[in-house]
From TrEMBL:
<keyword id="KW-0436">Ligase</keyword>
<dbReference type="GO" id="GO:0005737">
    <property type="term" value="C:cytoplasm"/>
</dbReference>
<dbReference type="GO" id="GO:0005840">
    <property type="term" value="C:ribosome"/>
</dbReference>
<keyword id="KW-0460">Magnesium</keyword>
<dbReference type="InterPro" id="IPR013651">
    <property type="entry name" value="ATP-grasp_RimK-type"/>
</dbReference>
<feature type="binding site">
    <location>
        <position position="262"/>
    </location>
    <ligand>
        <name>Mg(2+) 2</name>
    </ligand>
</feature>
<feature type="binding site">
    <location>
        <position position="248"/>
    </location>
    <ligand>
        <name>Mg(2+) 1</name>
    </ligand>
</feature>
<dbReference type="GO" id="GO:0006412">
    <property type="term" value="P:translation"/>
</dbReference>
<feature type="binding site">
    <location>
        <position position="260"/>
    </location>
    <ligand>
        <name>Mn(2+) 2</name>
    </ligand>
</feature>
<keyword id="KW-0648">Protein biosynthesis</keyword>
<dbReference type="GO" id="GO:0046872">
    <property type="term" value="F:metal ion binding"/>
</dbReference>
<keyword id="KW-0479">Metal-binding</keyword>
<feature type="domain" description="ATP-grasp">
    <location>
        <begin position="104"/>
        <end position="287"/>
    </location>
</feature>
<dbReference type="GO" id="GO:0018169">
    <property type="term" value="F:ribosomal S6-glutamic acid ligase activity"/>
</dbReference>
<keyword id="KW-0547">Nucleotide-binding</keyword>
<dbReference type="InterPro" id="IPR023533">
    <property type="entry name" value="RimK"/>
</dbReference>
<comment type="similarity">
    <text>In the C-terminal section; belongs to the RimK family.</text>
</comment>
Length: 301
């Protein structure tokens, strides 16, 4: 097959591993910086142009769209879909998962476990918003934050009020969530491909840090998931319409709760911690599904 990896940087671990895995299985792999593409949007012959050349005859694409480039990145993915190219994750599913509020609302609609969550923009009833999630301690997030940026743990009611007031001053949309104390600064990343969890890891935050992101000094180790955790991860990915996803969960006293569903999960942490060839499994998935020619997201919300 001829497969394009849509990535801004060919030297990134995840991009390199996907290219290596595809070539090892006999496929023609090409890394394309989607920001340098432009599109000819026409009914008769829609095309994507890169470095002056039309991108033709690709069997599949693997989108690795940066969070800050979601709008243009998904436009390029959508153009490939219009051309009939199979995408590992389709544009609508990527957009759906990147909208944190929409993601949580969809998961709630599907009955998937979540932390108690409140959402606000310019509410004057800050005390009521805090009470919605059971009071302090609680976690306050900027809707647009990534990799733990814009996430604050407020340990007292007054601290929570101060942070919310500060965020309001930024004219920002705010999520407040209950703090899952029993998680002890750790979360679980389940890597879902198709209808299975193929790898998993536990991420532990650095000393004194409640955020477990590896970018913030967290440590990762292999972990065995419970059947409920596996089921929750698969259901969460399916609810987003994602074929490939990293599902982040916390272990709470009332079962697993989903924090985020990532449409471009990194491979370095999960491969090293789990010792699973995740990149190879992604290529295997494409081999089995590209032949089916399934394109077009039909989820209606």
């Amino acid at each position: 097959m001829k497969i394009a990896i849509l990535s801004q940087d060919a030297s990134l671990y995840s991009t390199r591993r996907l290219k290596e895995a595809g070539e090892a299985q006999g496929h023609e792999m090409r890394v394309i910086n989607y920001l340098r593409c432009y599109m000819n949007i026409t009914s008769h012959k829609p095309t994507v142009v890169y470095n002056g050349n039309e991108l033709e005859n690709f069997d599949a694409i693997i989108p690795r769209i940066g969070a800050s480039r979601t709008f243009y990145g998904t436009a390029v993915v959508r153009q490939f879909e219009v051309m009939g190219v199979f995408s590992a994750n389709e544009s609508q599913a990527i957009s759906r998962s990147r909208d944190k509020l929409r993601c949580l609302q969809i998961l709630a609609r599907e009955g998937i476990g979540l932390p108690v969550t409140g959402f606000a923009h310019a509410t004057q009833d800050i005390d009521g918003l805090i009470d919605t999630v059971g009071g302090a301690p609680l976690v306050i997030k900027l809707l647009e934050g990534t990799q733990g940026i814009g996430v604050v743990l407020a340990e007292t009611h007054q601290a929570a009020k101060s942070v919310i007031e500060a965020f309001r001053g930024l004219d920002a949309n705010i999520l407040v969530q209950e703090f899952i104390k029993e998680a002890k600064g750790a979360d679980i990343r389940a890597f879902v491909i198709g209808t299975k969890v193929v790898a998993s890891m536990k991420r532990q935050g650095a000393e004194g840090e409640f955020r477990s992101n590896l970018h913030r000094g967290g440590m990762a180790e292999k972990i065995k998931l419970t059947p409920e955790e596996r089921s929750t991860a698969v259901r969460a990915a399916k609810a987003m319409g994602l074929r490939i996803a990293g599902v982040d969960m916390l272990r709470s006293n009332h079962g697993p709760v989903v924090m985020e569903v990532n449409s471009s999960p990194g491979l370095e942490g999960i491969e090293k911690a789990s010792e699973v060839d995740v990149a190879g499994k992604m290529i295997d998935f494409l081999e089995k599904n590209v032949k089916l020619g399934k394109t077009g997201d039909r989820i209606q919300y």
